[in-house]
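Q: What structure does this chain adopt?
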Amino acid sequence: MRAVIVEKPDVITIRDVAVPDVGPYQALVKVDLAALCNATDGKLIAGHFPGVDTYPTVLGHEGTGIVCEVGAKVRTFKVGDRAIGGMVFSFKEGLASAWGGFCEYVLINDHDAMVADGVADEAHGWFECYEIQRAVDADIPAAEAALLCTWREVYGGIGDFSIRPKDKVLIFGGGPVGLSFVKFCKLMGVKWVGLVDPLPNKRERALRMGADQVFDSGGGLDIAGGALDVVVDAVGSEGIVNAALPLIKLGGTIGVYGVIGAPTLTVEKSRGPYNFNLIVHQWPTRWREREAQAPLCQWIREGKLKASDFVTHTFPAEEIENAVAAVKAGEAVKCLLTF
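A:
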């Protein structure tokens, strides 16, 4: 099967690797669509993702496909189901795995069956991400299913940051994550939502998604100091954290959603109110992510949430380098890869 490999930082290839073996609690998924994660995959390709330093590695953690084989103890999935969250952690060729989802075939794991059988633990090969490897109802289109990988995490992040309808929320970064925060906050009735991004096309897209106001990050913010309840850093930047401090209310929150590559974070706390909350969300809260699927799918059914609002480019998997280049150039919001 074809797989997208980062041979070493900034060198990407397509290799043929063996189809993974299906274990008793696993199902094999034939991937039809995958999605490039602008931040995480970009940092993995560049060699800057914290904790990942072994190459060659198989890329990818967002994708969807159809179940084509199930293990003997699987009860949650059946052949023909659409599923998301497929990854491969172990390759016969000895390749490292940066979640390994950009493959022609991936594995999903039956978390619920493992829990029921008392084997959802490390000794039996269980990983915490198995909780969000799920089937998707047949009425959800493939592109929306692929984007659920991002959307569920963002919806969970809104819960982690305790964003409420009465809040004023500012988001730094107009990529897929930042735009998802805008969209979901407005669908949830949040009072005021603003977005900061240097690119006009992303600011315009945020306005179409319901943002109340947008700002060029280089031109200063027309917001009264200390007016905001929550600032979301959807990029992952020490500079954004410190720029946000004067903008939040006493007891306000700065939520860092993007992964900060540096091992340390210096916070200039004197720039903020006497009391504030700093939440560093570098990894999904799995139970929130799992529970997010139902309300997100309902928005999809109601026509309130569409992949076309986010997807700007689609490439064959073999053109992964073109997809990465489009993201780096600021041309792409969300890229899909076809297998």
